[in-house]
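Page 42, continued from yesterday. The earlier attempt failed because a stray header line got pasted into the input along with the sequence. Redoing it now with the clean sequence only.
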Amino acid sequence: VVGGLMAVIFRRSGQDRVDAAMALPKPDGVRPLGQIAIFFAAQVAILVFANWARPEDPSGAWFAIWRAKWWLTSAGAVLLGITLVRWYSLAAWKAVAIGVATAILALARPEHPELAFTAGVIGLAAVTARDQGELGQWFASSWGYAKQILPLLLGGVLIAGLLLGRPGQEGLIPSGWVETAVGGNGVAATLFASVAGAFMYFATLTEVPILQGLIGAGMGPGPSLALLLAGPALSLPNMIVIASVIGWKKTSVYIGLVVVMATVSGLIYGTFIA
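This time it went through. Structure tokens are written below.
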């Protein structure tokens, strides 16, 4: 939505950029969009279904998905394996070996499906780490990001726990302060959460433990969603970087749209859904 509004507001400069891009020669070695979409869809399916939590209501579609979560995760893994073999030059016997080892472990210890999942991840990592081509670059990039993110994630969890505590246990920051600032689902609390989130810096994945601590300290559902939407989208450092590329005029409009959309989404969620 924000991207669409930016395109409408600055449609003239956007059209000039499109015309300039059309005049450039097409780069070599670019994969078809369909292959890229399937590759990422398989990974998203694995990520989503492997982490699917059990719903409180033991009926309905969400519960049915939870019961079939590991079958759905396996389907995503099979699709990923086929994609890697067909389009990314992974040897078929390596993919089959990983699949067979994972299946054997899943059948041997069905009460602990996470063991088979971990074995599949380790097997794929071992295979791609030894590859000298595109798969090796994929592993090197993923491992590089992991080394950057994990220390920040663990540090974020530790700091969030110390400052905000956990549900039922107060941290160094009194819960009353949090309830006063962002308690309930009012316009002021939701807008405050959106603006605060826009200027805060969240390292990748640290917004989850921080938000859990805030919710445990009394933050309302609407402001929670507003913070979760505005926080990863913006921060003071990336505002400066964005402005250096597109200018402060477009950056200011982008910041305003993110804050407004996060506030509106938080109000709708807090009022009608939560």
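Notes: The first helix runs from residue 2 to 9.
Reminder to self: strip header lines before submitting.
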